């Protein structure tokens, strides 16, 4: 266990903004002017930023040139697009959504939604932007 903890501490380092390449900071600041609670880490050759915009948590991974590799955004389940909530309601009528994330990577958007029944059975479901289910697993 100690080995894995040490390994994770070495592979992800908290960084102050002065240690982030200017092009990465510029890319982030140009799109996320309202960001608060900003926390940077180095992940290999990339830079990951976790932050809040309003009440929502976000995580973005940038390469060293400031190009966004992925963006993960927590969202309220009530804000899921109609295609997503429609697919979930059709396939899982006895479940309700408890948590949701919007994931953007290489121009593709997917949604990860945690759902559960009244009796407590939980599932994690991933859907394309159009509502096609691409992953369904018991949690």
Q: Can you describe this structure in just a few lines?
A:
This protein is an alpha+beta fold and 139 residues long. Helix content is 22%, strand content 50%. The chain has helices at 2-11, 22-31, 82-91; strands at residues 12-15, 36-43, 46-53, 56-62, 68-75, 95-105, 108-117, 122-128, 133-138.
What is the arithmetic mean of pLDDT? 91
Low-confidence stretches: 1-11
Instruction: For the largest sheet, list the strands in their spatial order.
Output: 1-2-3-4-5-6-7-8-9
Radius of gyration: 17 Å
Give descriptors for this structure.
9-stranded antiparallel β-sheet; 139 residues; 22% helix; alpha+beta; disordered N terminus; single chain
How does this structure look, described?
The chain is of the alpha+beta class. It has 2 domains: 2-60, no CATH class; 76-138. The protein is built from 3 helices and 9 strands; from the N terminus they run H-E-H-E-E-E-E-H-E-E-E-E. The chain has helices spanning 2-11, 22-31, 82-91, and strands at 12-15, 36-43, 46-53, 56-62, 68-75, 95-105, 108-117, 122-128, 133-138. It has a 9-stranded antiparallel β-sheet with strand order 1-2-3-4-5-6-7-8-9. A hairpin with a 4-residue loop joins strand 7 (108-117) and strand 8 (122-128). The longest helix is centred in the first third of the chain and has 10 residues, at 2-11. The radius of gyration is 17 Å and the shape is elongated. The model is unreliable at 1-11 (pLDDT under 50).
């Amino acid at each position: 266990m100690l080995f894995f903890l040490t390994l994770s501490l070495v592979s992800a380092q908290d960084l102050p903004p002065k240690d982030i390449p200017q092009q990465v900071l510029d890319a982030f600041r140009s799109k996320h002017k309202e960001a608060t609670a900003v926390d940077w880490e180095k992940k290999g050759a990339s830079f990951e930023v976790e932050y809040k915009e309003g009440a929502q948590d976000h995580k973005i991974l940038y390469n060293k040139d400031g190009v966004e590799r992925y963006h993960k955004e927590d969202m309220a389940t009530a804000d899921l697009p109609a295609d997503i909530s429609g697919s979930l309601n059709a396939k899982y009528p006895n479940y309700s959504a408890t948590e949701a994330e919007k994931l953007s990577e290489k121009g593709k958007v997917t949604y990860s939604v945690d759902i559960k029944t009244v009796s407590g059975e939980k599932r994690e479901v991933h859907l394309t932007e159009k509502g096609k289910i691409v992953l369904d697993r018991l949690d």
